[in-house]
Design brief:
By secondary structure, the chain is α/β, with parallel strands linked by helices. The protein has helices spanning 3-27, 58-66, 88-95, 105-122, 140-154, 168-177, 188-195, 219-224, 248-272, 284-302, 324-334, 349-362, 366-385, 390-408, 413-420, 423-443, 445-448, 458-466, 475-485, and strands spanning 31-36, 47-51, 76-81, 99-101, 130-133, 203-210, 231-240, 306-311, 339-343, 488-493, 502-506, 512-519, 522-527. 49% of the residues lie in helices and 15% in strands. A hairpin with an 8-residue loop joins strand 10 (488-493) and strand 11. It holds the Pfam family Acyltransferase.
Length: 530
């Protein structure tokens, strides 16, 4: 059979095979919500698709996404880990001339050569259009810790929802099938001559997958249907190959920038259930950041990290005369407290409020201070024992102890307040408190695991909800911090339920040294218990 005819028939049959997968998933109640660039405009062009990699469900999901888009789904070349060669999909992929890549430093150079030869031999002759590539080189859950460690050591962004990508395969693809210009090739003229017979890539399509609540599905669960029906969200951005840097370092920075963008997209998705809207000028990420900076600047200009002491009655002005629920609760609160100190609402209010309130109380309690100082001093070594990198936490611990020792020197409340309103000192203090909570949760893994929702492990919860700055705090953060330092925290919960505030002490039965007011999403410090 004439090769051109063979591969044309093959692409139709492969598209039909994918239709079975699409049918399974749709019948199981799994849908796809697509936002971002409209890639139907490039579906018939040569392109490489870059996708974040969370689970085995990513592969059938890509099939669902591409299947309605002309014949590109039948003309794809998959680049996948060599282990998949020994699966049912791998057998079919071998027949279709997909490429199986081996991971590891010792084979990296050789794999680049093999991929280049494979593309020259099979991409055009097999009538391929799209190349599917997962630049991270593995599933998120398996690579995240190593990626974050590498990022910290080399000054790269520490990502939670994706891992740092590798450029080797992408560089080879662009070098072989790009615009004919060799990427740092020592034989540029020879390379250009070879590339003239190849179909040239025209687009790089960046695809970001978001699973509900960050809980990635798996292929078996989607095909069999035992996982709850749901929509999976994907975001697209398309870049002309002519806009992609050719220099290796520039390409690396470009690819890292795409994955930082994925991090922001997924962070927004996990908070709001949707990807952020696109703007027509394609600079939506900059506009979002600009708006966020304006909001943060306004808050910074109008509110201290920790405010001055105010009468509790000042809160009444925040509520309308007719809002009798909150006014009744403020009256109840006034029977026990006289003053309040407001904390900036930046997502760190619990940790910042706890830190200042606790140290302020220790100015009058030498015995508890000595106990706290001992625990604080030893905490760094305990974190290192738990696997936290010493070089990462050392600076935070040093700054933390610098602030703690102000109590030993009998500083005034005003001096302590100035330190907590110093952005650098205050944020370092908060970061270390977050690390302490993370360490305690992981140390007491068996106890806390049952309190974590969404099927996440304690370590995953810490990576996503405890260690990052700006993440709001819940009961589990409060309990862990109180237990870690052997102190008590009393929180007055003021919401719209009932006529009085709900009072909780953490841990149960403790003598509280810290008193906080919680209103939905925010903590402030309470004073002068009557």
């Amino acid at each position: 059979m004439v090769p051109d005819v063979y591969w044309k028939i093959e692409s139709v049959l492969f598209k039909g095979l994918q239709a079975m997968v699409v049918t399974w998933l749709h019948s199981g109640g799994y849908g796809v919500v697509e936002v971002g660039d409209d890639i139907s405009a490039v579906e018939d062009s040569e392109a490489v698709l870059l996708c974040n990699h969370q689970s085995t469900a990513d592969t059938p999901l890509i099939m669902i996404v591409l299947w309605p888009k002309g014949m590109c789904s039948g003309k794809v070349m998959w680049i996948m880990d060599h282990i998949f060669r020994f699966t049912h999909f791998g057998l079919m992929s071998t027949i279709r001339n997909d490429f199986f890549i081996r991971q590891g430093k010792e084979t990296r150079s050789q794999q680049g050569v093999l991929l280049e030869e494979h593309l020259k031999q099979h991409y055009s002759s097999s009538k391929r259009k799209w190349i599917i590539l997962f630049p991270e080189g593995g599933f998120l859950r398996k690579r995240r810790e190593a990626s974050q460690e590498y990022a910290r050591k080399n000054g790269y962004p520490v990502l939670q929802h994706v891992t740092l990508p590798r450029i080797g395969a992408l560089k080879t693809i662009l070098n072989t099938l790009g615009d004919g210009q060799s990427f740092e090739s020592e034989h540029g003229d020879m390379q250009n001559g070879m590339n003239k017979s190849q179909e040239k890539l025209k687009w790089v399509v960046d695809m970001t997958i978001g699973y509900r609540n960050g809980n990635a599905l798996d292929m078996l669960g989607m095909c069999v249907g035992y996982i709850e029906p749901q929509n999976i969200h994907v975001h697209f951005r398309a870049y002309p190959v002519s806009q992609i840097p050719q220099d290796s370092e520039d390409l690396l920075q470009w690819l890292y920038a795409r994955y930082e963008e994925k991090e922001k997209l997924l962070d927004h998705f996990y908070q709001h259930g949707v990807f952020p809207p696109d703007f027509t000028d394609r600079n939506y990420d900059e506009e979002i950041m600009s708006m966020q900076r304006e909001i943060e600047k306004e808050i910074t200009d109008t509110q201290d990290l920790i405010g001055p002491l105010q009468s509790l009655e000042s809160l009444i002005e925040e509520y309308a005369q007719e809002d009798q629920v909150y006014r009744q609760k403020l009256s109840d609160l006034g029977s026990r407290y006289t003053h309040i100190r407001k904390i900036r609402g930046d997502g760190n209010c619990f940790f910042r409020g706890f830190g200042f309130s606790y140290l302020e109380s220790l100015l009058k309690n030498d015995v508890e201070y000595e106990s706290f100082k001992k625990i604080a001093a030893q905490s760094k070594d305990e974190l290192v024992t738990l696997g936290f990198p010493q070089f990462t936490i050392e600076d935070f611990h040093d700054t933390f102890m610098e602030v703690v020792k102000m109590v030993e020197k009998k500083c005034s409340v005003e001096e302590l307040l100035r330190s907590f309103n110093d952005q650098g000192l205050s944020d370092y203090f908060v970061v270390y408190l977050r690390l302490v909570v993370s360490g305690h949760l992981q140390k007491e893994n068996e106890f806390f695991a049952s309190f974590i929702e969404g099927g996440r492990s304690v370590k995953e919860f810490c990576n996503q909800e405890v260690e990052p700055m700006g993440k709001e705090s819940d009961h589990i953060h409060v309990i862990a911090l109180a237990q870690a330092f052997g102190t008590g925290v009393l929180i007055e919960y003021m919401d719209r339920g009932g006529d009085t505030c709900n009072t909780h002490i953490f841990p149960d039965g403790a003598q509280p040294s810290v008193h906080l007011l919680y209103r939905p999403g925010h903590y402030d410090i309470l004073y002068n218990v009557r």
